Each structure stands twice: as structure tokens, then as C-alpha cells.
Amino acid sequence: MDDKTKPILSSAVVPHIQPRKLKSDLRRRETPSGLLVFASSLLVAAGAAAMPVTSRAPVTAVVSSSAQGQETSQLRVPDEPPLEFEGGNFMIENSDNGPQLVFERDGQRREVPLMLPPAESLGNPTKVYYGEEYSFILTRNDETGKSYAIITMGAADVAAGRETLPNNDLINADCVLLPSEPISHSFAGDKMFFFYGENMFRILEADTGRLRRLTVQGVSGLSVAVDYEGLYFLIQPNQTPVIFLGRKTDGSYEAQAFDYNASELTGLVRYEETEGRLSAFFLNSGGQTIEIGITVGEEGNLGTVRIEGR
Amino acid sequence: MNGTRSQERTQDREMQIRTFSVQGADGRLYEFTVRSEDAQLLARMDRELNVNNRADLLFDYVQSYAGTRRLQARVQEAEGGQWSAVTDTDYMRNRMFQRDISPASVTEVSAEAEVITPSRTSAVAAARPVRVEEGAEAERHTYAIRIGNERYVFDFEGERPRDWADLVARQDGIVGGFGHYVGNSYVGVVGTEAALDQMFQKIREIMVARGSGGVSIEQLS
């Protein structure tokens, strides 16, 4: 195996997984252990609030004076192939007025200009992930050392004519500052996972905009998050190659680990969905390829998850 | 998992791997790695693509078999000397077909075999609960909103504001970094406080004029 075909999921390589089919019916069920599968989008009561008369607290920071009176630049997202969605193509295009979400189908075209801070703040986009429910743009500002994850709309809402985030009538881009630079990340469904090593990771929830810092024994900088059949799995080459992650009804997280004891797993080669199962292929210390399969029953909850080594 | 399938999976399997270097008609270099347990299929690919120089058949093979157990493929794109964008087959199909890239030439660069060794099913233990610790996190969001042809940018802490009324109600969430732009230019309002006051004044005026907190983007634009 030459350098170009070595295990694909090193810490520096970001896996790309296509968004799963919408299975909202699977993602709202409570598991026997009390785990609640992630909901694709929380239905936030968005009724109009009464007109407030509150006064504002003092603003404690000011915008950089260097930008004052100067032309600012627009973010330019990297070129990525569009996402196929219901017979159309969904993508982000750069225009003179900045990036815009675009959905094209049968000669019809919808454009939604993204409302973004200037590129001077966000830095340079490094990666774009298109999803059916939500999309993400990752940026890094080399001058400030800050990285951002921008949550924006997915193909379904743009195709349906929405101009702002789901359950929101104000914004169509939520730029979330990452408190520290991750080793690697995964796009899985409506969430971004950022891995930092030493059991620590962060989850950015697109529906709420919440960034949660979690610690789970076994999660590493080599972990990959996979959304399979509406459930979330963390896959990593170590003694705990599969961790199922779920959110309880109170919003907190819960995890179940599956240990592998037959040999030491040293690398994750790849993963794939085939024949009704999610297969993860690992290398062990003896150089053998070990497959661990994950199946999820019709009920779509933890009680029906089967893990099999082969 | 039925008994038959489990029994089948106790057998060693050999996966043949072929790597092809592809010069795209767009001038870029791509690399396909295909895997299959079907040796005949791979031999046919080798012969057509490499020996018979039928680069044009590459996509036929990929389209026909990619994503199936018979043939899995991934593509890496060489840009700036770096191999990157390791992708799955769906992504590859998007990239290759929607960009309408025709392979100009295909060269086989490696051939190898991967033996998938069975391990005892019992090697994977039953699920065990594992503790999840959630640490406190100071969340900082940056939003841009548009009022007419003006754009306001601010840093916000706390739950994402849902609409204009919610923003006004929770304006204390604005913690700093406030900016005010007309078109692409920072307009240079005197002091951040003044700019912020100006923004909320506009929002309130429009909301009062509309008589509702449910003001839409269109109404404010």
C-alpha cells in the first residue's frame, strides 16, 4: 500500500459522509435505556414576543477601528460539488455580494444571500459541508487565530423557499466561535463533531446553535462521528471502537460503549454503509483488517443495535 | 443477523484492490481506488482501462458498480501536490458526474489484496454505559442582520435569537464586537454604543409601524 492508499482516517484527514436520508420517525424515539435519539430539529415555540421596553446593558467591546470607513471583503467559500436533493442541485456559490445558497431544479433557481460578517472577521473558509437539513462552513482566521463554524440552511429549506434558519425568522447564518482548535472533525447529519484527543470533543448542534463540550472515555483525535439510521456512533481505532451517543429528554448526553478485546486496533481504514449495516474496517497490530458491523433494527433505538466483529 | 449470514462471515475473504491514476479532461489528477471481491470484474476493468486504453469506460464501471458490494471506489484529488478529499462513493459520483469530467487517461498504479479476517463475534463485548461529562462552555456567536441596505454585525452570547422581537428582548446578549456596514463599507458611526442604539431604534420603529413582533426579513429590507 503506498502513501496514497494508506488508512484514510488519520487525524489530519477529515472524513466526508453524505447526509443521511431524513428519518425523523426514527430520531425521536426513546430508547429502552432512556436515551432519546437526536431530533433533527427542535420545535421551538417561536411565537411573537411582546414588544419589550428593556434598556440595553453597556456594550463592553468595540469593533476594530482598522475596519472603519474601509471596504470589507466578502467570504469566498471553496468550490465543492453540489448536493443532489430531490432531483435538484444544492450548493453555495460566491457572488459579488458574498456567498449565497443556491438550489436549482428544472431550470428554476432559488438564491438566498447569506448574511455574514465580513471576511476580515471570519478568515478563510476551509471546508463546506452540504446537508439536507443544515449545512456548515468552517473558517479560520490566521491573523486572530480564531476558527468558526457557520451553521446555515440545508437543501430542504432552500428548496422550500425559506430564507432563514429553521424555526428562526431573523438570521440565516450562525457563526459559532470554536474555543480551541480541534485535531479533526466530522460532519454527521445535523451536527458537527470536533475532536481534541484525550476523550474530549465538542458537538455543535445546528438546530439550537449550542456548542457542547463533552468528555467520554475512549473518544480520541482519531474518532469519526457517523450518523447511521438516525443514530450517532463514534468510531475510533482503540479498545472501544464503537460508542453510541444519544441525547436524553433533558438535553444532556448519554453514551454506550462497545469494547473489542481480540486484538489491538491500530487504525481505522474506512467505513461504509452496505447491506443494511454500517461496517467499520480497522487494522490490528498484526496487520490484519478487522471488520466491525453495526446494525440498527426497525425501531431505530439502542435496544436494536447489534455490534458484530468479523 | 441471521444464522446463515453469521456462518458465512466466519470465512476469510480476500478483497482485491486496484488503484488507478486518472488525468481528467479538466487537467487535474484524480486517483481512484477500487475494491472488490469479484476478481473477474477487476480483471475486466484492468484490461479495458489499462491494456485497451479505454479510459472512457471508467465512469461506466463506476456508475454501474460503485456503492455495491461488487465494487467500491473512492477518489482522491491532487491539488498543489497534496492528495486530499478522501471521499465516499456518493460524493465521488457527485464530483465526477456533475462536473462532467471526462478521464483523459487512466493508469493503474498499484494492485494489492486485503484479507478480511474473521474474529469471534464475542470479541465485541455487550454495550456498557459510559459516563458523559459535560463541561461548561462560554458560547460566542456572531450574527449579521440586514435592515434595508445596511448590515449590522454583532457578537452574541446565549440562545440564538429567534426573530426581531426576540433580539430586542434579549439585546443584553450582545456582548461586543459590534459593527455597522452599508454595502461592503464600514460606515464609521461614532462609537459602538451609538451604532447599537441606532440599530435597535430602527428595529423598534419598524416593529411599531407593523404593529407586531413578527416582522419578517422582507418587511425590514
What's this entry about, in short?
The complex is a heterodimer of chains A (310) and B (221). By secondary structure, chain A is an all-beta fold.
Description:
- The complex is a heterodimer of chains A (310) and B (221).
- Chain A is 3% helix and 41% strand.
- In chain A, strand 5 and strand 6 (134-141) form a beta hairpin.
- Chain A is globular, with a radius of gyration of 21 Å.
- Chain A has 310 residues and is mainly β.
- Chain A starts with 82 loop residues before the first strand and ends with a strand.
- A four-stranded antiparallel sheet of chain A has the order 1-2-3-4. A four-stranded antiparallel sheet of chain A has the order 5-6-7-8.
- The relative contact order of chain A is 0.15.
- Chain A contains two helices and 20 strands.
- Chain B is α+β, with helices and mostly antiparallel strands.
- Chain B is built from seven helices and eleven strands.
- Chain B has a five-stranded antiparallel sheet with strand order 4-3-2-1-5.
- The radius of gyration of chain B is 29 Å and the shape is elongated.
- The model of chain B is unreliable at 1-10, 80-89, 118-122 and 212-221 (pLDDT under 50).
- Strand 8 of chain A pairs antiparallel with strand 8 (141-147) of chain B.
